[in-house]
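As the next step, I wrote out a protein sequence along with its fold in token form, included below for the reader:
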Amino acid sequence: MRPRRFSCLNHSSAPFARPPNTTATVRSHTTTTKNTTTTTTAAMVAENFEAVLKGKYPAKAHARRVVDILRQKAPKAGGVFYLESTKTKLQEDNDSPEHFRQRRFFYYLTGCNMADCAVAYDTAADKLTLFIPPIDPDDVIWSGLPVSIDDALARYDVDEVKYTNEVNATLAHLASRAGPASTVFALAGQVSDHVTFLEFAAKDFEALKPAIETARVVKDEFEVAMIRKANHISSEAHGAVIRRARSARYERELEAAFLERCVAHGAKEMAYHPILAGGKAAATLHYVDNNAPLQGKQNVLIDAGAEWDNYASDITRTFPLSGKFTKESRDIYDIVYKMQQDCTGMIKAGMLWDDIHLHAHKIAIAGLLALGILRGDASEILAARTSAAFFPHGLGHYLGLDTHDVGGNPNRGDKDMLFRYLRLRGVIPAGSVVTVEPGVYFCEFIIKPYLEDPVHSKFIDAAVLERYWDVGGVRIEDNILVTENGFENLTTAIKEPAEIEAAVASG
């Protein structure tokens, strides 16, 4: 049986000043450019993205963008792109299908979320052809009638729709029409055995993937609207988790609260496995158990985001289970809050991400020095990279069809530990979407080796540090659209400490 799936802030400049002790009455959405800051309600934002999403996913514009990128390296590049969707695969020792996740490269050129499909793009004719599975009478008994050719033409931004049993004949026709210069571009390992490229003079399995990866970095209006909607739903779900905090006994209850809101709003797919980490577990960056008791713990860190039609959100909040931050938790929250606000404020087209990440470390060092956790000279601490004991990961990454989206050019071989785990390196362009997710963590496994190393131990006051282990970790993360002169924050989940405390207390 073949399943058919388809869908179409300003802040004080004083070091570590606590955010205003006020509670906002509405969630806000902030756009910052060189000269202006505009705030709108979440309801207005929702109205805007819903209007955009009434149109079709711009598949042909994406195909043309990929051609342009290919031709930057080879001016005469052209031919036929061929990609296949995810194939239906049954679970091992079971007659039910595995969970479906569409291939992102196929989706980028079609907007189609069905299994067992294919697409061909003739670059010379600027013609996009989608291939859908033919009707299987046995499948209709169980699943009903599939999407028809007319349905697909109405739904997707393609020029023609055919059945998948016409793939080889269509490819042969395209190759013969192009003549001796015909080239087919495909992805290695993602072409079915029955598909033949014999009629093409040349086959290229290398160039298409990096070209699409480059194209995906800069989002168009429709893609941004998808990410806005994912953020809108996920922000509502984060609010539900915070309100559930005081009555929950286990982390899993908070995960359930998040999932319920997402599913209720039509977002059944998560961009990644949600993280609901209570107490010291918040120091584990990708904690996945979500099952521990909450009693006696100070805070919960929730890192969770839903998808909307394959486009991701990625949001993190940290909040007190009691409804009031302890002194130690608030100390760390204020440092991370300033890291996030100041680094977000630096964002605009042309900024080097390494510089923004480095600035986050400088703020973390200043804050930990003020608390007495670190001691000594800030520049020496930075040069020794001691701050990596408390902030070991990168400031953020690209966001789009994947949570850790393509095009970031990470360098895991970097000998500098401050940059080794950055998923984004280089200059950020207008139209890209990045996460800004600084954190400060108290992970014994990571920090204790620093305490035993004389290069680092002279900068850490172990006696002061002792008071902060139970904080676990604090991370705050928003999704940011890069503009020519600034940024736009797409995330509306509350993060002001007073507003978070009030939401927890209201229960």
